[in-house]
Amino acid sequence: MITLNTLLKWSALCLGSISLHAMAASVDPQAVQRGEYLARAGDCMACHTAKGGEPYAGGLGLETPIGAVYATNITPDPVHGIGEYTLEDFDKAVRHGIRRDGSSLYPAMPFPSYAKVSDQDIADLYAYFMNAVKPAATPNRDADIPWPLSMRWPLAIWRWTFAPAVASTVPASSDPQLARGQYLVEGLGHCGSCHTPRGIGMQEKALSADAQGQFLSGGAPLEGWVAKNLRGDTHDGLGAWSEAEIAQFLKTGRTDRTAVFGSMTDVVQHSMQYLTDEDRLAIARYLKSLPASGPAPAASGASDTAKQMASLNVQAVGARTYADNCMACHRSDGKGYAQVFPALAGNSVVNGKDATSLIHIVLAGGYLPGNQHAPTAFAMPGFAWRLSDQEVADVVTFIRTGWGNTGTPVSAADVQAQRSTGH
Ligand code: HEC
Ligand code: HEC
Ligand code: HEC
Fold first, then answer.
1. Which residues surround ligand 3 with Cβ inside 6 Å?
2. What would the pLDDT profile of 107-120 be if each residue is shown by its tens digit?
3. C or N: which end of the chain has fewer Cβ atoms within 10 Å?
């Protein structure tokens, strides 16, 4: 028998579903879908999701010179997340660096780059976060920054000094592919937040292509990894890479010559692998348009390394350590195995100005994960437990100067410094 009570419940349920339906109807599913793609391109996940946590529920700590800042919950939860945010509130945070309460955000949130995102893309991102992300009632964490540094008003001054004006549209261009690449690299991709050197106020020295060639010319080490030069320099930049190679690297994390490692692995896994081939090629095209940042260094003249190693004439500093620990995978000619073990000869990472990443990968090892486009994973063991500081210094010096490579030597003190960071 149907009681009044059940009838009431049913009608309430029907009413509920009608109003939800009406709401859903006002949401443009294409905007939501575009927004999801843009959230990938902007890699919002990288910072706003804690290890093992709910997607976008925040909690990941980001190191700054004054203490850790925690990315916030950006799910549509009304209490802990951004459920109550209007499009304007969302825009203020993402492009202008201003919280809903009017205070300023730490630039650990890359709003100086997101300032380049168009009005349309901001609206689509908003549609996605509000309608397709699952609300999570995860409370936010306060930054581990002691008072008085924790006061937010100086951040407003930072913003006035360093944050660029917000552009509402994508600039018109006679070369749409190049313009698209520029838009993605400088804007949502925020590549410069790692790959551009920073100034005295921790601001990126350039937020777009500049006459001094600072944009994407290589950042300082962050958590033990160096986001290196991506400009046209042939020895340590992308001068020797083709557009197709760059696009393939962003898609699969590997090329015939190199493999992604360190913090760039997450960029490929969470963001770049999900872009379209056209967008990855546009990014590659734009990177290839950036001229070299300096003159090429003289070759080290040690190009007979391959012959010496093959005959096990291991006189050079570090050569013995290389033969015993590395040669099985990276080979005597330093060419590795295409798409499996990266080449070290002629490798733009190995030739990089700052050797921190190389010391780091030799100590800690590396893991090249598979993804939807390249399913096989490969790993390199860590050598921290079996090689001394001097041996690591020697073997890194060896790979930086062997086979005609042009890197500078590293010292045992450099290795000791890296070891003591615990990364
Ligand atoms: C490199 C790390 C990083 C990335 C990438 C990032 N964020 Fe953030 N975001 C942060 C941090 C850290 C904060 C908190 C800063 C603070 O407390 O001052 C923040 C704050 C925010 C806020 C403000 C929330 C509030 O409390 O008002 C919003 C909204 C936001 N991010 C959205 C996004 C979106 C959308 C994307 C992708 C397009 C994104 N973020 C990508 C680090 C990041
Ligand atoms: C979180 C920091 C971070 C961000 C953001 C980042 N990168 Fe990187 N990137 C790195 C690090 C660290 C390396 C060095 C490790 C490697 O080569 O895999 C690197 C290496 C690269 C390389 C290989 C260079 C070489 O010579 O081997 C390319 C290409 C690249 N990044 C492109 C990009 C692009 C394009 C973006 C923006 C869409 C981007 N990166 C954003 C950290 C970052
Ligand atoms: C078991 C095979 C193996 C051995 C042994 C090995 N490596 Fe690797 N190496 C790899 C793999 C796989 C990667 C890619 C790791 C990644 O993407 O995170 C790599 C990456 C590297 C890189 C980064 C280059 C790039 O473009 O990605 C350097 C530098 C390097 N190895 C140096 C060494 C040195 C020096 C030794 C010896 C002390 C060594 N490796 C021993 C397999 C190996």
1. 258-261, 325-326, 328-330, 341-342, 344, 347, 349-350, 358, 361-362, 366-368, 378-381, 383, 395, 399
2. 999 999 999 999 99
3. N
Length of the chain: 423
Residue 423 exposed, middle or buried by CB count within 10 Å (0-12, 13-18, 19+): middle
The answer on pLDDT for 392 being more than 60 is yes
Is residue 295 reached through a cis peptide bond, with omega within 30 degrees of 0 on the bond before it? no
Kindly state the tokens that stand for 242: 């083709």
- What is the 48 CA–ligand 1 centroid distance (Å)? 7
pLDDT > 90 fraction of the chain, expressed in percent and rounded? 74
Instruction: Pick from 34, 47, 56, 194 the residue to mutate for probing ligand 1's pocket: most ligand atoms within 8 Å of its CB.
Output: 47
Lowest mean pLDDT among 111-120, 151-160, 331-340: 151-160
- Per the model's pLDDT, the better-predicted residue between 251 and 140 turns out to be 251
CA-nearest residue for atom 28, ligand 2, is 230
pLDDT given for residue 223 in this prediction: 87
Q: Which of 401, 349, 61, 346 is nearest to 229 (CA)?
A: 349
Q: How far is the CA of 247 from the centre of ligand 2 (A)?
A: 12
HSE of 59, CA atoms in CB hemisphere, 13 A = 15
Of the listed ligands, the closest to the CA of 94 is: 1
pLDDT of 148 above 90:
no
Task: Give ligand 1 pocket residues (Cβ under 6 A).
Answer: 39, 42-44, 46-48, 62, 69, 71-72, 74, 82, 90, 93-94, 99-100, 105-106, 108-110, 125
Task: Please tell me the distance between residue 69's alpha carbon and the centre of ligand 1 in angstroms.
Answer: 10
Report whether pLDDT(232) > 90: yes
What pLDDT is recorded for position 183? Answer: 97
Compute and round to an integer the Cα radius of gyration of the chain.
25
- Within 8 A by CB and 6+ apart from 49, the residues are 55, 56, 57, 58, 59, 60
Buried (b) or exposed (e) across 373-385, using 16+ Cβ within 10 A?
A: ebeeebebeebee
